[in-house]
Design goal:
The chain is of the alpha/beta class. 32% of the residues lie in helices and 26% in strands. The protein is globular and about 40 Å long. The chain binds S-adenosylmethionine. S-adenosylmethionine is lined by residues 1, 34-36, 39-40, 55-58, 61, 82-85, 102-104, 107.
């Protein structure tokens, strides 16, 4: 990932979370796939009383997020080192209210990841996805060869079993990204 301040400069993270979660957050656990610097984890934790399980494969990033949560006295983040592609989330099926997959669907096995999100969400639970746009020039993001378009994301999301797949307009929050929500 690029340097943290530079990465953070692309988003109004609170704005993104409000759009993806809705004004009132639903009760129930939140699972975040690939939490990175915690750019979105911290705003979600502040937005909600739910526990957020933030998974990342990079121990340094997980430690950084734990430190940030401690410094800000945020108690509802549980950050864990885990390769969720190889090992899944470790969560029981049908237990979570919200699954976040932000800036990640370019990875090698997106359907596997989406199916794991589908498995752990409860009926009516919400999936939220954001990613870099490929219809405009953007300063960062994976190469165009592997960067999924909104249409490709939506097809994958439906293939994984979700319904009510909808676009979310993120223009006022981050002009280089698109957003999609779907229901389990
Ligand atoms: C591009 S960053 C996005 C971070 C965060 N979602 C955001 O939007 O700010 C992708 C993150 O996913 C993590 N990641 C990639 N593959 C993973 C895997 N198989 N298991 C766990 N974490 C993974 C990376 O370490 C990285 O922190």
């Amino acid at each position: 990932m690029p340097e943290e301040d530079y990465w953070g400069s692309f988003f109004n993270a609170e704005c993104v979370i409000n759009k993806m979660f809705g004004e009132k957050s639903s009760e129930g656990g939140v699972i975040e796939f690939g939490s990175g610097y915690g750019t979105f984890t911290i705003p979600v934790a502040k937005h909600s009383t739910s526990t957020i399980l933030a998974l990342d494969i990079e121990p340094d990033l997980v430690e950084l997020l734990r430190q940030k949560a401690e410094e800000q006295s945020i108690k509802n983040i549980h950050a864990e080192v885990r390769d969720f592609v190889a090992d899944g989330t470790g969560l029981e099926s049908g237990t979570q209210a919200h699954a976040m997959i932000f800036n990640l669907l370019h990875l090698e096995h997106p359907i596997k990841l989406l199916k794991e999100a589908h498995r752990v969400l409860r009926k009516g639970g919400r999936l939220s996805v954001i990613h870099w746009r490929s219809d405009i020039s953007v300063p960062r993001g994976p190469s165009l060869e592997i960067r999924p378009t909104p249409q490709q994301c939506k097809e994958l999301i439906e293939k994984a079993g979700f319904h009510t797949v909808e676009d979310v307009d993120l223009l006022e929050c981050c002009k280089f990204h698109f957003g999609i929500v779907a229901l389990r």
